[in-house]
Specification:
The protein is an all-alpha fold and 106 residues long. It contains 3 helices and no strands. Helices cover 80% and strands 0% of the residues.
């Protein structure tokens, strides 16, 4: 094959960060509401943006052409995405600990 290029690695890294952020959102909900109800949060977290993207591309195909191009380098983007992911993960951890402490006190 042709091997892996920088674009392939960037997409794989971005997918990994999205999964980590998704888990960071769902885990505190799972602690608070249980596994069954937290599935609705997971569907909303992944499903609503996907539906909006598909609907936007279907009904307004030229909409993405009008989006302002932001000039940001790949290193800056990677560092920013990593910082956001770490912040969300830390917030999720603190929220989960707080939920579990309240449950144990009852």
């Amino acid at each position: 094959g042709r091997g892996y290029g920088p674009e392939d690695l960037a997409v794989s890294g971005a997918a990994l960060l999205v999964v980590i952020i998704g888990a960071s959102v769902v885990i505190p909900c799972c602690y608070r509401f249980g596994a069954q109800k937290s599935r609705f949060v997971m569907v909303a977290f992944y499903g609503i943006p996907a539906l909006l993207l598909v609907a936007g591309l279907k009904f307004a195909p030229g909409l993405m052409d009008q989006v302002t191009k932001v000039q940001i380098g790949p290193v800056e983007f990677a560092l920013g995405a990593l910082a956001v992911t770490v912040a969300v993960l830390a917030g999720s951890f603190l929220l989960s600990v707080r939920i579990m402490e309240r449950k144990e006190l009852k």
